[in-house]
Amino acid sequence: MNETMERPVADQDALPAWIRRWGIGFLAFVVLSTIGVVAFAVFRPILVLPRMSLAPGSALVDQRGETLTSAELRGAVTLYTFSYTSCETAPCAAVDSVMRAVHERLGELDGGTIPVRLVTISFDPERDTPAVLAAIPSQRGADPTVWSWTTGDPAMLKNVIGGNFEVFFEERDDGTFRFDPAFVLVDGTGIIRARYRVGIPKPDKLLDDIALILKEAQASSGFAR
User: Fold this and answer.
1) Model pLDDT, residue 112
2) In 105-202, which residue ranges form alpha helices assigned H by DSSP?
C-alpha cells in the first residue's frame, strides 16, 4: 500500500532535469518580463526636445504689410519654414503641403492658453511683396492670425535664415532659388528646439514635437512658462 502511494512521487522525480530547468527558466522569464513592464510604466523617461540655441531676433514684414518681430512671437510655440510663392518645384510643394496639414490639425493639440504659430519666410522679397503674400492665406485656406507669410530686407534674410536658422538658400541666374527644405521649431522662450533638414518631416512628427513643448510649458512656471 505504501509502495503504491509513493509511486507518483517517484514518477515526478523521474522527470528529466532539462524539463525542470526549462520550467523554472520560463517562470523566471515571465516574472522578469512582468516586472519590466510595470517598471517602464511607472519609471519611463519623460520625452523632451533638446535646447539647441537661441532663435534669431528678426523684424519681418507679413502679408498685411505689418512688422512681425521675434519678440511678438515670444510665448508662442512657433514652427518656421522657408520658401517663396513663385516656386514650382517638388520641395516647395512638399513643404507647403506639410505646413497646411499641420495648420489643419492644430485643433488636435491641447495647448491650453499657449498659442501655436506658423511662419513661412520668403527669401524672394523682390517679388513676394505684402500684396502678393496677402493672397496666400485664402489660397491655402489658412487663418492669417495663425499662419503668417513673411519676408524682409535681403541682408536681414540672409543673416536670419542662413546664419541663425542654418538653412541654405541661393538665387540662381534665372531668378529661381536653390535651397534646402527645412523646418525649425522654436519654443515660447525663443529657444530653437528642433531643426528638420533631412527630408520632409511627416505632419505627425511635427505635431508630436509641438505637443511635447506645449506639455513642457504647461508643467513649467515663471519665466520657463
Assistant:
1) 86
2) 130-133, 136-140, 154-157
